[in-house]
Design a protein that fits this description.
metal-binding (chains A, B, C, D); Rossmann fold; manganese (chains A, B, C, D); 6-phospho-beta-glucosidase (chains A, B, C, D); 6-stranded antiparallel sheet; homotetramer; 6-stranded parallel sheet; glycosidase (chains A, B, C, D)
Chain lengths: 437, 437, 437, 437
């Protein structure tokens, strides 16, 4: 990569998150000289895309930045010559997500966007599209970095790593949120903290936490066990059992609640679905409000209300990655990359989420040493589910899909796995061309 | 080992299974020249031991065998100079087993002797006793082979491998029963069949089945899916889903039903517990009847009724192992031994159940190659549970016990894990000296 | 494989060894009902092939066997419908072997048929031919087993495993010769002995030796150290240092002398080359004498003189393998097969030589556990050489060839590696089409 | 570690290198607030130690630093309360090194301080002493970091990692020298360069080199092949073969010449030994001159002549490590640490030299991915030698020592290994208490 100004292609540019990304870009122009942002979306998102485009132009103008802003349905034009391709799209929109949440609940199984059968369904819809995008990148921007924050980020990144030659890093706002929450409970600056993370996307542990050179892992676990606030917008804040945290000896991520506190989380989900609607159904409303705001000619900045939406720090996580690569920073980030022996009992070619040194070379994981059985059992089980899901999604393989769901720890047995799989395939029929053979 | 006549020490000699073992010994005297059988039991089993001793003498006399039969409470005398030590005891008797079955059911969790929280409780009671026995063997019969069929056989053998220098092989009647059932459904002789097994005790798969040189794995899966009889006395014969078996691509063991058909098995267990009582409660009755039979002076052979008891082929499994070792046969058996790279993603020092070549050298596993994610996730998860259980049992470590149960796929979450653990520790208080510190 | 009578295809049928193979077949007809032997050779071997064909017919007639004997240049006809394909050819004949022995000696480097630069040159000539044969087998006899004893057997088998779908086992007479020599020094029957072997072809150790249930490894090492006869026809019997054997703790194979006693072996080779000629040059004379004998109409059996030739037990090694596969014996043999974790620090896809259970399923290695650094360093170094050699041979890659020789422990440094490589490529120009691009 | 001022203990403080270290400390006082330096040495080095102490005081005074300087024979006093313990001693002094160089040469084997039999002898002398030091650290300064640059640094660090609980990092000036030489040939600043290093001490490769975000590995190899200066003071600058470098695909370190260009290096060593004396014999002279200079009351800075001595960048390498740990920098350094899966085919508990992120947590290696056979064979062979050497040195085990030398690629065979071992043991008798049992 040369140090010339950058072109960013944003796939799924009509997302309500985009203003945060734009704000992040404008804040960092001295470090990351962006000359062009090309937003692209599909036909169904045309209207939103136009709103985002207009708002972005107003933000760029206000910042006095010299930058081309383009918005189109032409994905190939967006990718052509891009230095970074950022993927943040949602196949099937929020309605598909609502289905992902509702279907498992019918069977008394966790219904969640990225974890359990919901994440499985989302992977089936998303992976064919991302592979298609990658074909364009291989052809039109072979040296570009694709930063994927389309969920389920681990599964999507694994498909890209296994089936394409695109240089990619998957990222997520969970690790950065963990850092922020821990900084708050320890009453320190985030940059004074270091977390040694290893696991899978939405199943990542901080195996050790360091504050100004001191190992504070036990202190953090104690605070979380004592009830310190430790959750994210979209996850119910079930309290953690202090004995369990002590036995675990590593700091779980908020999403671990689905695995460790399954029954309480399920009960909460069912109650909420009945009353306020599922998370997707709530978000639909937020989205409508946001786009109304975005449409105002008076608005030339990211509105505060966006923070309610949930994806805190996404912009920072992704643009700090761009900074680290572009400026060859060799700084530590938690990313989704090829395992390559980092967790030695997992195959080399799967994707894990871990602390890594990011620079012009991409991301090099740091060695965390052998993990103990208290985390390795769950990682192995969920990774088996993920490997099977990627194969099912790429090849439209029913058997692999069935084994995937049967291997997911949130699905109690094969009877439920089959019922849920069949309903997912039926409901998502239009988005699953790979299964229509 | 020299080719001189053999002394067998049978720990837990007062078991109702013993007559089958005695019959097996008498049948094989030409291959295995046993000169002495020393049965040993604890005070509480004194009466049963006397019945077994008398019956054994009658059986030996009828066979005209030249063999010393001893029965005592003196474990050290039994072990002194033994060539094989066979362990088949049950700490706490059938009442403890009934507790193991009842406690989890209260929490809507599978209640089973060897799998799930029931097996966990049994491991906590058994492991301290087996380590104590091993100290005697190290001192009094350091060259003896200990053949362990005390359940949970995998966990118990792992504790022995990790914490003693005793030469040991763990064994189980499940693999031999699988072979017998497959022979029946394929209408062939068992010796024409070969199964390539690898997994854990009560969680073992035949990854390939061979009949006279043909790979018949798919045929067997088809027959099982079509409803061929494929269960054991003590496991409810839930039907298998043909699609699932096809997706799995390996032949599960009957105990896999607890993991793959959890809800149906739980429902069946709850119904049975309500009506006929749990399996232990049923067995208590059978046991009483058996010992009444055994007491008859007229009886000088294993009575037919023993077969109802459930442990089919235990005698064959263990004495064929004695034969293979004593006569250096290099024959294939499915046994519980140190992993040592057989399943490469598991640590070297854990115990697995697998096909192995047995001879004077003990058991050498055969390489089965990398296992796929469809089985590896579950093996890894259950092995993590097992590693934590062994540590909890050896060190009386509450935290490890909690993580063990939380890692068991049959326990839905940590809330349940904690409730069940606390009740197990309380109920088994008298049998868990390691936790009374 | 069905139990119908068998067709054997013997590639390189004009070899002087063939009468031993024929004798072996005729001896085993009750266990291995061969209905057809098809010998095939290249144009240059036409005359020899005719001699072998005639002798074979006389042997078959004398034995009164009902068997078709065919000899032709038509490799495809030979392979068509074969059950076993046996490969024993020599590209370039004995003259090429003489070059393999002479070239390294010029540079003060061991000159040997299978080890060091000689084996490297032979691999370059042989691998393209074997891959060509495999294409025919894939097309014309996809269920056939190829038993390869073409040297260097480990390298050739690795190329087949990596680049074809042919079912193959590589074999060698070294392990069986070790067993025979150890039986002689221990004054026992070979069948009473078991060796646990693992390593690479011509670099295999017996890590433990068992005699009637006793571990006799230390006794064997002591006898070898004390000067017991322990070599093969074609390897100079340099005495072994008893201290070294004790430190090694495993029984080396005779070929290990090239690595452990390099300077003495080199001195002996140079002296012999000067006086009697290299081994190949000596063998040329023996071959002429043998074929003269074979041509005699009066001869209808394997002549005694063949034993001087060197390949003792080749016939037994290969036909016992046929027996084990055809009759599904599950017996132990030392073979060259895919590693698949047997030696965990080597890649799965390389070929090793090890004890394995052979039956209708092919060969399943037995687990020997982690090997210590005293053997692992050398195995790893030689395997690196082998991996690079296979790549060089398949792709005609000069760089890989240079790295291969530079990685061979018998080649002192890269200067020598380059000089030797260049001379090998030049001398073998006609046999190395893959390098002529 | 708290942010309070630091105490440094320097074991082997009387070394001629010490003024460089002192200069480095004084240069960095703003980042590393050292309050005390305690130099310690043995009786034989008393005189030199006094010279160093006086010079240090003059340097500290000139810098106007507020720092206690202590020099004593009392190792325990030095270690008591130290934050960093730096080990840079030489058991037996330069005379022992001269023996290490001379003995192998008698047998036509590379005679070098750290590589081959010379490094082996040095390890035997050094390891018992370092373990003794570590006992003091465990008792008197359990939280201190020991930075070891006593050679052979990899072997010494491995002994510490395996046999003590001391927190340690081994370091070497080779990687930093590689960076400096590459910066010079690429005409760039060293800080613009990043090398991805992995291997063993004095056997480390830069698998990839990056300059301002560009992969320049091939360019560097080309320049080295074309004759760019690429050696260190103490290593003869044999030219590199461009074809070989291209085939290797990784940048070797200057010490690789001993392995890759063995015969030329040996010839050069023999010629030099005859004329100027071995390296140690030359250094003795330099040392005398240096200490004469150091004694001058007028000198209050590191004299230029020290640079001729050879250990360029040692001070920078070690003090940058102190900086990274003390200030929790998370910066990249090449260090000797526990493998822990970084090179997956080597055991977890061996020490490797690799790029790592250094901070208050110590050093976390970065994952470099699977290495190819072109480097893995040599690493595995040398690591086997190292593992055996550590065992020989710790336990005084002759057999392990013999296997170690026999496994070293620079020793041609076991005859030479034995002769050299016996002479090393005899010559070093006074320094090898562990072998006198």
């Amino acid at each position: 990569m040369t140090k010339s100004p950058l072109k960013l292609a944003i796939i799924g540019g009509g997302s309500s998150y985009t203003p945060e990304l734009v704000e992040g870009v404008l804040k960092r122009l001295d470090r990351i000289p962006v000359k062009e942002m090309h937003f692209v979306d599909v036909e169904a998102g045309k209207e939103k895309l136009a709103v985002i485009e207009a708002l972005t132009r107003r933000m760029v103008d206000k910042a006095g930045a010299d930058m081309t802003v383009t918005a189109s349905m032409d994905r190939r034009a967006a990718i052509q010559g891009a230095d970074f391709v950022m993927t943040q799209f949602r196949v099937g929109g929020l309605q598909a997500r609502a289905n992902d949440e509702r279907i498992p609940l019918k069977y008394d199984v966790i219904g969640q966007e990225t974890t359990g059968p919901g994440g499985f369904a989302k992977a089936l819809r998303t992976i064919p599209v991302i592979l298609d995008i990658c074909q364009d990148i291989e052809e039109l921007a072979p040296n570009a970095w694709m930063l994927n924050f389309t969920n389920p980020a681990g599964l999507v990144t694994e498909a890209v790593q296994k089936y394409t030659r695109v240089k990619t890093i998957g990222l997520c706002n969970v690790p950065v949120s963990m850092k922020m929450m821990i900084a708050e409970m320890m009453d320190c600056q985030p940059q004074e903290l270091t977390l040694e993370c290893a696991g899978l996307n939405h199943l990542v542990w901080a195996h050790r936490a360091w504050l100004r050179g001191q190992d504070i892992t036990a202190d953090v676990l104690k605070k979380v066990g004592d009830g310190a606030s430790y959750s994210m917008k979209n996850i119910s804040e079930e309290p953690w059992d202090p004995d369990f945290l002590n036995a675990l000896g590593a700091i779980p991520c908020p999403y671990h609640r689905y695995f460790y506190q399954t029954e309480a989380m399920l009960a909460e989900e069912k109650a909420t679905a009945l009353k306020e609607g599922t998370r997707a159904e709530q978000v639909m409303k937020t989205e409508r409000e946001l786009f109304e705001l975005y449409s105002s000619e008076a608005l030339a900045e990211k509105p505060e209300q966006l923070e309610k939406r949930g994806g805190a720090y996404y912009s920072d996580a992704s643009l700090n990655l761009v900074d680290a690569i572009y400026n060859d920073q060799k700084s530590l980030h938690v990313v989704n990359v090829r395992n390559d022996g980092t967790i030695p009992s997992l195959p080399d070619d799967v994707v894990i989420e871990c602390s890594a040194v990011v620079g012009s070379w991409g991301a090099r994981p740091i060695v965390v040493g052998r993990l103990g059985p208290q985390v390795l059992g769950l990682i192995s089980q969920v990774k088996a589910y993920e490997q099977l899901t990627v194969e099912a999604a790429v090849h439209g393989d029913y058997d692999k899909g069935l084994m995937a769901l049967a291997s997911n720890p949130l699905v109690p047995d094969i009877d439920k796995a089959k019922l849920i799989l069949d309903e997912i395939l039926k409901t998502n029929h239009d988005y699953l061309p790979q299964f229509r053979h």
